[in-house]
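1st attempt posting a full record on here, be nice pls
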Amino acid sequence: MTPRELRTTSLLLFVLGAWPLLLPVVPPLQDLPNHLATVHILLHPDRFPELVGSGFFKTNTALFAWSYLLAPHVGLVVAVKAFLGLSAGVWALVLPRFVAAFAGPDRARSASLFAWPLVHSWFVSMGMLNYALSLPLVLLLLVVLDRQRRRPTLARGALAAAIALGTWFVHVFPIIVAGCLCLCEALREKDTRKRLRAAFLLCAPLAPTGLLTVGSALAHVVKIEGSPSAGDVISFSPLHRLVANVWENCLPGFTWLSAAPTLLPALSLPVLAFRNRREAPPFFSPVATVLVMLGYVLLPGGASNWWYLNTRLIPFIWFALLVRAPARLPRGLGRSLVVAAGVYTVALGVDYLRLDRDRAAYTAGMAAVPEGASLLPLSFESRVTSEFTASAHHLWGFYTMERSAHVPLVFAVERSYPLLWKQFPPAQLVPPALDNFARLARSPEVVCAQLRAVGVAPADCEAAWRERWRVFLDQAAPRFDHVLTWVAPPELERVLGARYERVFAKGPLEIWRRRR
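the predicted structure (as tokens):
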């Protein structure tokens, strides 16, 4: 692949993943509304005295720092779209060059036909934007470290250290994986002297970032006393879900419309790469690849308020497959991959517009919520159009962004977040956790099923359901002057109407005001 072909490939990858950003008012990414609410609060601290900024010198804060600096000049939504465009551009630049460096320019051409789903991966659709950007940065870091090992210079070592620090600022997890891959790469040397030399050249540039990583881990693991966290919850996925998630939690878009085209590279690349399984490209030798896969299988899905923990290793499995893509593809497969990429990018644009209609429906009651209201969002359904993300889960964030509404679901319960509650537990938080209470108490049948699961057999499911809501509203009503319900069951009006009056209703959205 010539330099001109590399530039053309990067441009095409960028367009495939970034052009849908031009279509909607706001990109329909799952966690993005919560992030927008966070930045809005940081920009207007006087309106939210119960919250305080904790600074940007920490990992996983690149999106917030970027938006905080740009929003006063271009607007918050434009700032976030620029960040998404930057992320797509870095992916498009790095991916073909990464494969060219570790597998040769001929394979970079064919590997790019499999790589296009990574530019707008599932992590982007989820709104995990810091993590999505950190992945191509860590690939760039590995390329520079490989050159440093082969031809060490002080300048190249300093460059690697700078890229590592930048990657840590964006997200720490890939740095941890990079350190493990460096150790595996050093151990490939045949004698002790060469192993020590390789370990020094590969790991020395990571030393400053390693210290910051330890600090980041302590900041996240050591909880603030009284904080409403899930720090003791550790969850694992069954084996069949682990296999399915290698595709589902990395490559799809939002719905089957945009996900179906990604099945072709997802199914064909592992088969073709398996034929080259004995090859040992830098950092992705057979042993290193197996260790990454074992890490994915053995790590929990969630721990210490860090969800999709093992899922974050899935992109490294795809990186190991990409560098084993054959230089020549079977007849017809190349053309089929090009067609799949075209269908995918058009479908992605269609999904952007369809999910933007969900946002418009959720925010239709904006005028019914006064400025600075204390708002309790009760979303009984977090998936509307999207099938691979809970795209409606954080849509309440737009009420914070547009009306400065006080909503206790903002990400502010960990030292590692750029925003914190001034006191724990915050006065606005109503147990059990608001983001799943509506789902857990959706109907009398759901409540009865939960009670039976813990050995309680209520004689009257309707009475048990009403009692659960009564206890909840006893705590909520004094603290929230407005309630937002989304896809609420008809029965809810009987319990909510005693304390609140409905002031807006359109489709699945209702806004309620506390009775005076």
